[in-house]
Amino acid sequence: DMAAINRAARAAGVITVWDLAHSAGAVEVDLKAAAAQADFAVGCGYKYLNGGPGAPAFVWVHPAHVNAVEQPLRGWLGHAAPFEFDAGYQPAQGIARYACGTPPILSLTALQAGVNSVRAADPLGGMAALRAKSLSLTRTFIRASQAAAQAHGLHLATPLRDEHRGSQVSWACGAQAPDGYSVMRTLIERGVIGDFRASPRPGQPDLLRFGFAPAYNTHEEAWRAAQALGEALGHVARQGPSTRARPRVT
Question: Please, what is the average pLDDT of the chain?
Answer without folding.
Answer: 93
